[in-house]
Amino acid sequence: MTPRLKRARTDSESSDTITMDVETPAKPKQHEKLWFDDGNVVLSTDVHLYNVHRSILAKNSTAFKDMLELPDVGNLSIALSGDISKGDGWEGKPLIRMVGDSDEDVYHLLMVLYDVKFYSSHKPATLPVILSLLRMSSKYNFFDVLYEVTKHLERIYPSDLDGMTNRNTDSLLVDYGFETDDYDFQLLVVAQQCNVKSLIPILYFDCATFSIDFIIRTAEALSLERSTFMRILRGRDRILYYLRQLAVKAAALLAKFVDDPPSFPINQLLEKGRRVEDEDLLSSVCEDCSEACATSLDAFRTEIWESIPGIFELGAWEDVTPKVLDGPSPSIADGMEQAP
Q1: Which residues are 76's β-sheet partners?
Q2: Distances in Å between the alpha carbon of 309 and those of 165, 202, 225, 304, 319?
Q3: Where is the BTB domain (predicted)?
Q4: Neighbours of 32 (CB within 10 A)
Q5: Could you read off the pLDDT of 261-286 as tens digits, one per residue?
Q6: Buried b (16+ CB within 10 A) or exposed e, 65-95
Q7: What's the distance, Cα to Cα, between the start and end of the chain in Å?
Q8: What sign does the dihedral 138-140-143-144 (CA atoms) show?
Q9: Torsions phi, psi of 46, nearest 5?
Q10: Is the pLDDT assigned to residue 8 strictly greater than 50?
Q11: Strand partners, 86
Q12: What pTM did the predictor assign?
């Protein structure tokens, strides 16, 4: 429990004067795992102090590199809001105050730098880790980390049609879909904050497949910006238009489609492995009709895909897809603008 101090009673006050408790802010304490005896820079949150290495931070982050190259940086207190003051370092080491960053975000980022087993883009991670790495790597130009977490997310929220065929939600999050129902919305918020353009169209698309009631509840819970909320709703209406068109395209299967409609037929059409004209449905029509239907739906699938960025008022795919995504560092920066 946070220690409390009681105001001393003066002689002029009566014995029944009510004393007021004053909260004493808890001081950050040394982190047990990320406090290295040979560390030479201290990061401070409102919860922990992290004694880490200037060389590690500077090697991985251009933002930290520039900051730590400031003249006479040894005995400084640096607030990342831009405030720098002398004489408030930590035992001769620079003290960097992580203003505006949660302790959890700082911890997750440092664990990636110091523990190779903590995170891999090829293994499922928890949603908080994914969100932290996206926020922190974008904010402080940890381009290699940003590249890895973006490629991780692009397996689930792809920017090419072939990627939709290979979507595997189990490869993204631990207990995907069970940690929280609003993970698509949380990821959309952070992807927009970090301006990771390649992820945004399919995040919008997935958010728009939820019911109106769920979208409204989630928008209120996450305090979604009105522009984001309205884009989701308008996009949802446009997807319903394609749903009606899908029924027309699949006219040969219409009777069975109406009797037993799939939950999200547009999603299933895009994720070609679970498309609407599967073997059970096609068995009810002749071979010629089946081929004609399949050809028509292939073309329709491409049409919907090309329309997705426009459905959510994001331009075209070329406007949101990075030019180069084959390597980390400068290449990932080319396709992503710094969030203001």
Answers
A1: 86
A2: 18, 8, 19, 10, 9
A3: 39-122
A4: 7
A5: 555 567 777 776 544 445 555 555 45
A6: eebbeeeebeebbbbbeeeeeeeebbeebbb
A7: 38
A8: negative
A9: -80, 0
A10: no
A11: 76
A12: 0.77
CA 220, 223, 227: angle at the middle one, nearest 5? 100
Average pLDDT score over residue span 9-17: 43
Is residue 194 exposed (0-12), middle (13-18) or buried (19+ Cβ within 10 Å)?
A: buried
- What pLDDT is stored for residue 322 in this prediction? 64
CA distance 26 to 39: 24
CA angle 275, 280, 282 (to 5 degrees): 75
pLDDT of residue 340: 37
Predicted confidence at residue 80, as pLDDT, reads: 55
Query: 39-78, pLDDT tens digit by residue?
Result: 999 999 999 999 999 999 999 999 999 888 876 555 555 5
Amino acid of residue 57: L
Quote the pLDDT of residue 11. Answer: 46
Provide the token pair at 258: 């109406």
- Angle between the N-to-C axes of helices 127-139 and 103-114, in degrees from 0 to 180, rounded to the nearest 10: 90
- pLDDT level of residue 111 (50, 70, 90 thresholds): very high
Residue 157 to residue 271: CA distance in whole angstroms? 12
Q: What's the mean pLDDT in 304-329? A: 79
Residue keyed to tokens 């070329």: 318
